[in-house]
Description:
By secondary structure, this protein is α+β, with helices and mostly antiparallel strands. It has helices at about 1-15, 60-65, 125-135, 175-180, 245-250, 265-275, 305-315, 315-320, 345-350, 360-370, 390-405, 415-425, 445-450, 465-475, 480-495, and strands at about 40-45, 75, 90, 95-100, 105-110, 155-160, 165-170, 205-210, 215-220, 235-240, 280-295, 330, 380-385, 410-415, 430-435, 500-510, 515, 535. The protein has a domain at about 285-505: Roll (Dipeptide-binding Protein, domain 3), CATH 3.10.105.
Amino acid sequence: xxxxxxxxxxALALALAGSFLWQGxxxxxEPNPNGKHGGILRGVLRENWPVMSIHEEATISxxxxxxxxxxxLVIFDPFRPVESTExxxxxxxxSWSWSDGGKKLTFKLRHGVKWHDGKPFTSADxxxxxxxxxxxxEKRLKLNPRKTWYENVTEITTNGDYEVxxxxxxxxxxxxxxxxxxYSPVYPAHIEPQELRTHAVGTGPxxxxxxxxxxxxxxxxxxxxxxxxxxxLDGIVYTVIKSRPSExxxxxxxxxxxxxxxxxxxxxxxxIAQAVPTMVIHPVAQNVYDxxxxxxxxxxxxxxxxxxxxxxxxxxxxxxxxxxxGAAIESAALLPAPYGEWGIGKxxxxxxxGYGDVEKDRAQARKLLAEAGHGPNNPLKVTVSTRAVAxxxxxxxxxxxxxxxxxxEGTLEQVETGVWHPRAARREFEIGTNLTGTGIPDPDGNFIxxxxxxxxxxxxxYCNPEVEAMIxxxxxxxxxxxxxxxxxxxxxxxxxxxxxxxxAHRMDYFMFWPxxxxxxxxxxxxxxxxxxxxxxxx
Length: 538
């Protein structure tokens, strides 16, 4: 039944893409078995990687260039744009199975795998990695954004060097999806976690050769990779280009072979398509949504009326038309069909703050501001903080304009990426505009990580024990229909209670030159950057 839904979703994604679908070059969604060996793939980075430890990061700026150096136990099939746990590919695991009523997940592991420093890979590395991430080890990560993903894991056991079992408190179908995320690589037990912040040591198809901040990251082929004849490429060079016009110019001039995921706006697509008609352009959902962070833990936004006023002031449809030029999806926290299967429908959205009639919503915002003591003679003045990256700043500028229309005066503050996430985690902001990516196509990756009370990525401080109990109840529900109903109820509660106002789910036009083969963008930017099957036909 689930596989049928996924096939329908995939078909709808093609049929309903509408203005998102670029009628240019086509790309086969199946691997080409006649790949050529050799060549250097040239990519672009929109900014420096913050650190090289994927488990400590919450941005594609880290995952994209570092993923080729690591492996997961399992990954989402790289040749299927619509991700599902029904279509997984084993990497460090050769097989996996559930037992004990869904409370145990056991993996059989590959033999003969080596870390980049030559040490052997064993089950001890798997246990070490996820004991560290779930906080059950004396070793610690400096930042641990996804610790809450594994709160249901009570124990990780090994049976010799090539078998490992995750033991759960209650059944949790999403665990397999979490382990398949690009955010879930396996780390070496013999290297201290802090060392991996500056030098990646994985088992992946590529090894780190050189990393020069503000310049480039250079990867070289791993000659000892456990998959025969992979990778095809001799290496990858990711060049840091912080200006969006310069990124576009580099792709257009053929100085790089592919763009950066998430940077392909509609205007960028139009520019490239006109200049290079043969460019391959893939419209895909990112599973990344624009949202507003309101610091609930201190004035002024400990007052729910002021939070609601902000949400009512933000006209989502205008945001999609103006900021995204139509290349975005109106939704709440979860990605709707045809790109995802969990998001709530348009009819239900219309009843939520900021999704209805714009004039009525703005009138309600002014009313709530007045009830909180603010008006023309006493405007609410706030600082709107965001990352110093173009796609973040675009949203922040739009938010400031929207707030001004109801009498809230906002001042823009741009924060460097390396500072932004720690500051957000410490809640050192009044209002922030943010992009939140969901590393898996399952509600748990969003709800548990961003809306449970103790999660380090719950940047706003929203904490409702009743909603949290609903989140964990939905997580353990194995009946899809019942779980979907719970998930929709949770999503609506989050919007009404202004936990983290959602503006839109972004589309991306991922672009690359037609000689780049076996690169299939997913409807989730975090899970397809391994590059082991990519080759260059030139």
